[in-house]
Amino acid sequence: MKRLWLLFAQTVTLLLAAYFVVATLKPQWLVRGKSAPTVSIMQAPPAPVGQEAPGSFSAAVRKAAPAVVSISTTARTPLGNDPWSRFFFGDQAQAQTGLGSGVIMSADGYVLTNNHVIENADAIEVMLPTARRAPARLIGTDPESDLAVLKIDLHQLPAITLGDSDALQVGDRVLAIGNPFGVGQTVTSGIVSALGRDQLGINTFENFIQTDAAINPGNSGGALIDVRGNLMGINTAIYSRSGGSMGIGFAIPASVARQVMKSIITQGRVVRGWIGVEPAELTPELAHAFGIAPGQPGVLITGVLRNGPAAQADLRPGDVITRLGGKAVASVAGLLSGVSALPPGQPAPLTVLRQGQSVELSVTPAQRPSVQRRQLQGRE
Predict the structure, then answer these.
(1) Residue 98's pLDDT band (boundaries 50, 70, 90)?
(2) Which H or E run contains 14?
(3) CB 3.0 to 4.6 Å from 239: which of 248, 277, 353, 372, for a disulfide?
(4) SS3 at position 303
């Protein structure tokens, strides 16, 4: 009897040990034959065919992207000015290539890009997103706004739709389309982070849209569009310490780009007014030094070119320009833009503050002399 009880105890112990091992290593063996528990996962239904998903900008990209092109340039530069190099190798030159972006503005082949993209190029080629290529002719440039107009001879070209860049507001969503680093057409998104940026030392005429949409080297000349696919600006420059995007990019408003392009196409160059003055912001210190009431809006004239249009209009150093052409003047950038918009040869009214008295003058602007673009930092 005692032997049977010992055998029973050993058998039970072995069975419990086996159960413990199976339950630890292969628990699914113990639930065989039972239905596995079901887990309910909620999945969003797919967007209907032909409609974009909520929050997607695919429709805007489909509308604008075909008109954004890649631009490659080739420039031949001498191997060097060393007389020994010339003796052994002759006047040989090496080819340098550059990459950028552009925007097809019209179906007949006018392409808008940055001047610094094609500057000093011996050959320019435009490539569409569909891989069609064509050599481009340079129609004209405007270094002071950093814009250039090209012409390509291809049929059935997609043209971008111009938007109202003057209606943009800080916080509006925008997309940047271009060819960064030569990797191919790329779309980035962000918002308008500031408007009317000037005094950056990038261009002579500055009125930039600032955005945090990623803009990198190669994006120059590409499109800044709104969520409806309309052109808001031409991507031009970035603020960067590393050479890459740091969330601060600048674009030329489409309204400015349209005026420059029209002038280049019709006249071969951009014609701007010029009066020959040296302006300065009316700071509290300057206002006090010149005996001007604090808070007086306007631009202080610190110098007048002898025999220039302003001198002929009796404008004097120390005058404060408050109105030009019937519009108020509050900053140097505003004065520069206002003067450049005046048609050369046509008199324009000018209101100045002189020794505390308002004086009405008439100035006849001349044509602004052309200048070579300075080598500036901050370009991509």
Answers:
(1) confident
(2) helix 2-25
(3) 248
(4) strand
Kindly write down the DSSP assignment for every residue of 177-203, as one continuous string. EE-GGGS--EEEEEEEEEEEE--SSS-
The strand ranges marked E within 56-128 are: 68-78, 93-104, 110-113, 123-127
**Residues with active-site annotation:** 116, 146, 220
Report how far apart, in Å, the C-alpha atoms of 229 and of each of 61, 108, 273 are.
6, 20, 34
Under CATH, domain 61-76+95-151 is a member of which superfamily? Trypsin-like serine proteases (2.40.10.10)
Q: Right CATH number for 161-267 from 3.40.190.10, 3.30.1020.10, 2.30.180.10, 2.40.10.10?
A: 2.40.10.10
Extract the tokens encoding 92. Answer: 């040989």
Q: Is 318 helix (H, G, I), strand (E, B) or coil?
A: coil
Using CA of residue 240, residue 246, residue 248, residue 252, what is the dihedral sign?
Answer: positive
- The CATH class given to the 276-364 domain equals mainly beta
Can you tell me the distance from the alpha carbon of 369 to that of 269, in angstroms, rounded to the nearest whole number?
A: 12
Domain boundaries, the chain: 61-76+95-151, 161-267, 276-364
**Residue 265 banded pLDDT, cuts 50, 70, 90:** very high
Question: Can you read off the two tokens belonging to residue 284?
Answer: 């509290």
Kindly report the number of other CB atoms within 10 A of residue 207's CB atom.
19
The pTM for the full model equals 0.70
Residue given tokens 């390509």 in the structure block: 152
Alpha carbons within 13 angstroms on the beta-carbon side of residue 139 total: 24
